[in-house]
Amino acid sequence: MRRYRFLYEQLVRRELRQKYQGSALGLAWYLVNPLVLMGAYYLLFGVLFPQTKVDDYPLFLIVGLVIWLFFSQSLLQAADSLLAQGGLIRKARFPRETVPAAVVTVQLATFLAVFALVAVVELAVRGTLGAPLVLLPPLLVALFAFTLGLALVVAVMHAYFRDVGPILSAVLLPWFFLSPIFYRPEDAAAGHEVAQDLLTWANPIAPFTYVLLLAAYLPMSWLDRLAGWKHHLTEFRRSGSHAWVSWKRKPSAPNRAHGNTAL
Fold first, then answer.
1. At what angle do helices 98-126 and 57-79 cross, to 10 degrees?
2. Residue 150's domain spans which residues?
3. Count of CB atoms within 10 A of residue 66's CB?
4. pTM for this structure?
5. Residues 77 and 152 in one domain
6. Fewer CB near the terminus (10 Å): N or C of the chain?
7. CB within 8 A of 230, min separation 6: which ones?
C-alpha cells in the first residue's frame, strides 16, 4: 500500500470533490440527516411514547446517529466501489483494496468533523469533561478498522454477486433498530439479562456505539457515582480533621498524672 499511497490520496480527493461538488452547504449536509432523524426519534420516543430514562435525550440520540451513519454509509458506498471504478481497475495494476479503503476514508473524514462538533456541544451543554474522553481516539481507530474490514468484504462479495448490495440495504434497517442508538440495552430489556447481552454483544456494532456513547455523552449515572465518591471522600477528610483536632486538644498522660498528684 505504501507504493500506491499517491493513488490512494488521489482517490480520496476525487471522492471528496464528487461528494460535495456543486453543493452550497458542503459538509453541513452530513449533519442534516442525523439532525432530522434526531428530531423524528425524539418526537416518537421522547414525547409521544416516552420509553427512556436518559437525560438530555436529543444529545444521546445525535451521538449514536452520527456513528451509525458513518458505519452504514461506508458499507453501502464501498459495496459498489469496485464496480464504479471498473475502468481504472482494468487499465492499471494496483491493490484493489485501495478503492473501498478510499471510500471509507472519505466517510471517516466527514464523520470526524461532525463528531468533533457534536462532542463540543455535548461537553458545553452537559459539562461532562472527564477521564473517559481519553478513550475516544483508540475507540475511533478501532471503529474505523472494523468498518474498513467489513467494507472490504462487502466490496469483494458485491463484485462477484450483485445481490449483495440490495441485501445489505435490507439488512441495515433492522440492524439499525437493534443497535443501542436511541435506547440503552438495560432500558430496552429490563429484567432480561440474556436479551441485554444479545443486544450488547451479539450485534458487532453495538459495543463500539455504546462505548463511544459512554465516552462522549457520559450518562448521568456515571456522574452520580463520581459525585458520591467525592462526597464520601469529603466526609472522610472531615472526620479525619475532627479526630486530629480532638487528639491534639486532649491532655497527655503525664500531665494528667501530675495534676492528680498536686491535688
1. 170
2. 2-218
3. 27
4. 0.74
5. yes
6. C
7. none
